[in-house]
Amino acid sequence: MNKGNGKTILIFLLAIVWIGGIAWLYFSNTHTSNREVVIIDYPASPTPAMSPEIAQQIDEPIHPRCGDFLCFSNMEFVELYDLFERKSGVEFFTKYIYQIPEVDVYIKAKAETRGYKQRGFADESQLVQFENVRTRPEVRDAYLAMRNEMLNEGIRLHFVSGYRSSTAQRDIFTDKMKLSDPSVILDGSYDEVLDTVLAVSAIPGYSKHHSGYTVDFGCGNDYLVYTFAETECFEWMSQNNFERTKKHGFIPSYPEGVSNQGPDPEPWEFVWVGIENLK
């Protein structure tokens, strides 16, 4: 074979290879573009269902406990009684103070600014009398149990006050105001006197004593409630967030450290809300 023929054959073979490569690329791309692409969708693993108990713990934070009972802040004590009173079935009535509409409206506005709230009244026919104090039977029974427990430790607790009618509360308030002409209050000149009286006394219709669930306590031979916070009775009752007092269903009515609750703090006054509301 001469040189010329060999070169021709080589060129021919290279051309065939080049044409074959182009043809392969063309048919390969065409086949790929027409191919159906299958996407496999693997199912996600199911999330385990949350138990109702765990869900409740997340929704409702665990309330701290003080011994056998829930711990409460002083504000929570106040709110607890407000809720208890609304659910207790007491009846609410609008009561007059001086029977002078504009004067009564003025005084009520001042009282509500201090945080006083309208309070419900007990059915007087369902009250009992004990130690010269009227109260509800369940309150008397709880008091007796607590009093006897304290007596076993040499501490003598006693009732000072319980249920009060609107008439009794009116007399307390108006006696402290000492107004011969109640209308003079409307010019604001008696605002300081009014605030001083409201710091220690509710107006009729706004006293927790109307409900029959509220009592004032004394200790030993002392019937002056203003010193109750300094007595061994209060020391016994207030320990560990009033744990031993809660054991009998009582909580403080107007505790220290709560602003705008009506009167100034009254450590001698307690309200009964029942043990089941304290656990």
Please describe what this structure looks like.
This protein is of the alpha+beta class and 279 residues long. It has a single domain, classed as 2-Layer Sandwich (Muramoyl-pentapeptide Carboxypeptidase, domain 2), CATH 3.30.1380.10. The protein is built from eight helices and ten strands. The chain has helices at 3-33, 52-59, 74-87, 101-113, 137-151, 166-177, 191-198, 232-246, and strands spanning 65-66, 69-70, 91-92, 120-121, 128-130, 133-135, 157-161, 214-219, 250-254, 266-272. Strands 7-8-10-9 form a four-stranded antiparallel beta sheet. Strands 1-2 form a two-stranded antiparallel ribbon. Strands 3-4 form a two-stranded antiparallel ribbon.
